Amino acid sequence: MYLKHWLLAAAIGAVSIKETSAQNKLSIENIRSISLRNSGTIVSGEEIKGYFYYYVSDKVDRKIYEYTIQILDENLKEVNRIVFEDDKRELLLETSFNGSSLLFLFFNRKEEMVTTKVYGLDGKLKATYSKPLDKRSAAYFASGQASLIGDEEGANQYIYDLHEKGFLSVIPLRDGKDYSFEIDIVHSDKKKAITFTPDYADYKYATAAFLGYSGDIALFEILKKQKLMSNKLEGSLLGVNVNSGKKVFELDESATKYKFMPIGVSALNGTDEILLLGNYYDQSDKVVKNNTLGIGAVTIDSKGKIKSQQYNSWATDFSKYLDVNEKGKLDDIGYLYFHKLIQTEDGEIFAVSEGYKRTASGMGIAMNVLAAASGGYSNASVTKLTITDLLLIRFTNQFKVKDVQVYEKNKNRFELPGADFATPHMLAAVAKSFGAFDYEFTRTDASKSNFYIGYNDYERKKDFKGLVFNSISYVDGKLSTDRLPLKSEASKLRVMPAKAGSILISEYFKKSKRLDIRMEKLN
Amino acid sequence: MNLIRICSLLLVSVLPGLHLCGQELVPFSSNAAQLRTPIKNLEQRHQEQLSRLSGSLKNELASEYQKRFDYLKEIYAVSELVTDSATVHYLQAISQKIIRSNPALQNRSTSIHFARAWWPNAVSYGDGTILFNINLFSRLENEAQAAFIICHELAHYFLDHSNETIRQYVTLIHSDHFQKQLKTIQQSDYRKNRQLDQLVKKLNYSDRKHSRDKEFQADSMAVLFMAKTGYDMRAAVSCLGLLDSIDKEKLAGSLQLEKQFHFASYPFRQKWIRVPGRTLSELKAEQVSVVDTAAMDSLKTHPDCSKRIAALENEVNRTYQENQQLFLVDEDMFRALQKRFDAEQIQYCLDKREISRALYYSLLLYHHYPESAWLAATIGDCLNQLYQAQLDHRMGKLIELPGSSTNAEYEQLLRFLQQVRIEELASLSYHFMQEHASRFQQQEKFRNVLQQSIKQYQSIKQ
To answer: What's the predicted TM-score (pTM) here?
Structure first.
C-alpha cells in the first residue's frame, strides 16, 4: 500500500516555504511526491530495536528510483535516513541489527535477485551481496511459501543477526521440481559472505527454519521429503558453524528417543550446551498427521551430541493440570499448537500455545445441501478449523510441568477448501502460515527475566463488539493480563510489537492523510 | 506551518536566588476579561496592517497577514497568555518605560504579553505583538536584562523585520523566475524531489543568513532604545552572555527520584531508573563523531552570542553611565514573578496535557519548596493522571519517550515512567500523598488528589 507519511514529508528538506495562497500558483508542497512502500520492525535477536519506513523518495529515470529508508529507534527517535538509488521494483523485505550494523534484505522479482546490504548506523554502506535466482526460485521466494516461521509479528523470516559475528540469511531456492535452500552468512569483519548449500540429493523438497544460535553453532530445523507429493515429512536438526559456514552435525529424527520437532532453542543457562524444546511423536508417526505425545526438551553439545532428553506427555504429566486425553486433545480446547517457547533467566520454561480442533462448518454444510438440492456439487468443506483458547504452560528448570494457565477467548474459525481431507494438525500448520491464529508475538527483555505475549480476540459483548488486543505479562515472577479494545476514530488502527513491555499503536486518518504512531505500555 | 518568524532567543544561566521559601507557590488564576482589550487591539492592528498594503501582490500579502492574525487569535483564545492583572501591569510598566523614552516607538501600536510556555523564548510577530515567555523571564538576573529583551523585540518591530520577511517570501514565490523554476521541476519526469530539495536548500541558506543579519540589526537598535531608559546598559551584554546555557535547566540537579519516591512502607526500586541497553540512536552517537559544523552554522537562525556581544560591546560601553539602574520598576515584583512563573509553567504543562514535563518541573521545584502543598498535590495529580491514562493505554499521549531530550535528569524521569508499572504508579501516588497528608490536608486540591490516590490504591489491592 502506498501511503503518504507526514513524518518524512515534514522533515525532508526542512521546508520553510509552504503552499502559495493563489490557486493558480505552483508551490513546493504541491509538486513534491513521496510514497511509502512498506514499514516494519528492526529486530536483534528477540528484541525490537527500532522501526524502518521504506519510501520511494524520487524517480531517477525510467527504471531507477531513489529510495529512502527512515530508521527510528525503539523510542521512535529518528536515527538516520539512508538514501540510495536502485531498480524501481526493489522491495525491502526485512531488516536486522547485530549490535553495530544494519542488514537489509531486498528482493527484485523482475531482476530475479536477492540482495543484502549492510549499513553502519552512520548511514554508510559497508557491503552488498547479491544473489541471482532463477525464475522458479524467484517465484518460489516471492510466494513466501518457504518460510516455516510463519506469521509472528516482529519476527523475521529470512535474515537473522548473529550479534558481533554478523548476520545470516536463509534463502529458499527452486531448481526444476526440486525445492531447497541456501544459508548465507555475512561476517561483520569480512567483505564477503559464506554460503552453505545442503546436499539433499535424494530429496525433492527441503526447507530450513532458523531456530537460533549458540556459541559458533547456528541451528536450523530442516523438513524434507523425498517426493514432492509425499506426505512423509522427515525432520532433522542441522548445526552449521557460523565461522566456516560448514555443517557440524545433522541429527535426524531417530537420534532422539521420540521423533522430536524442535520449535525453540536457547543456550542452556550456565553451560555451553544447547537446549531444544519442541513437540514429540512416536518414531513411526507422521508429523502433520498424527497427534503429538507431548513436549520434549533435548540438550546437545556443540558437536551435536545428545546430552539429555526429557519428555512431558499428555497422558501423564499434563493430565494433572488439564483434562487431556492420551492423544493430547483437551476438552473444549482441542489440540495445542505451540507458538513459542521461552526460557527465563532463572531457567524456567514457558510454552505459549493455542488450542485448535476440527468442527463442522455451517456454511460448508449449507453450500453442499443447496448444491445437492439443485442437482449440483459444491467443493466447500463441511469441516473447518476452530481456534480456541490460549494456554501458557510453565515448566521447572528441570523441565517438569509446573503450571498451566488457560486464557479463554472467543473462537476463531479458519476454513479452507479441501479441509475435509486434511488432519486437524495439517490444517493448523496451514492456518499458522495464513496467520489465522490469534497469537501475535512474544517479546522478552534483554535480561530474559520478563516476557510479554500478545494475542487478538474478537469480542461480542453488549457494550463492545470488535477486535481486542490482549497481553499476558510475566514481570518479577508474576503473570498479569491486559486488554486493549482496538476501537478508534482512525480509519485504520494497527498494533505492532515494540520494546519489551510496550506496544506500538499506529493510527491512520484517511481524511487528513495523517499517520500517528505512539508507544503504549502494557499493564 | 505559518510564516511566523521567531525573532529572538535569549536566556540567562545564573539562577535567581530562591529566597522565597515559606511562601505558598501557586499558579495564576485565569482572567479572561484581561484579554478583551488586547483582542480588540489585535484586530485593529491587523486591519491597519491590511489597509497599508498596496501593489500587485496585495492579496497575497493579505493572505499571509491573515494566517498570522488567525494564529495569534488562537494564542489569545487558548490560554497561552498570563492574564493576572498585577503581572500584566508590571510588564506594561517596563515596556512603557522603554516606549516613553523613545519617541520613535510612541506612534506605534504594540501589545506585549507574557506567554506561559515552558521554553525560553521571546517573539516579535511584526504586527506589534510581542510574546515574552515566562520561562525566559524567570531565568533573568534583573529587570534591565528583561528590558533589553523587550528592546530587542521592539527593534524587530520598528525595523519591520517580520513584515519584510513576509514581503520577501511572497515576492519570491510569486516571481516569474521562481514560478518558472517550479514549472520546470513540475514538468520534469525525473528527479523532481531532488530539484526541489536543492531549491529549498538554497532558499534556506539565504533566508537564514538574512535572519542572522537581522538579529545583529535588532541588537544594535535595542541598545539605542535601552540607552534612553536609565536601565544599566551592561545588562545587554550579560543577557547575551547567558545564551550558551540554553539547554541547562534552571533547577538542574534537583531531581532526586530515589529520595522523593522512597517511603518507609514502599521503598524506591532501583529497577525503575535502570538504564536499559543502548538504543540505535545512542549507538549511532558513539559511531558518528564528525559533525559538519559549517553546514550547521549556515542553517542557524541566530548568530553566535560571542559574535553578538562583540558587535555590541563598544556601543554598550559608550552608553553606560554609573547612574543607570538594574531595577527601575519593582525589584520585589521581579523576584516574586520569577517564583510564580515556575509554578505557572507547571500549570501550563498540565493544561497542555504534557504530564511528564509537568511532573518533572514539579519534582525539581518541590526539592526547593518542600513546604508547598500545591506542588505536592500537583506531583500526586500527575501520577494519578498517568495512572488513569495507562489504564486506557493513552499514557503515550501524555508523556515524552526517552531519547527526546538532551537533559539527563529529564531523561531519567522518562525512563522511570517507562519502567514503572501501573500498580506501582498507583502505589507511588498513594504513598507520596500519605507521606505529606498530615501537613497539607487542609488544602483543598491536596485533599482531592489524596482521595483519588486512595481510590486507585484500593482498586489495585482488590
So the answer is: 0.86
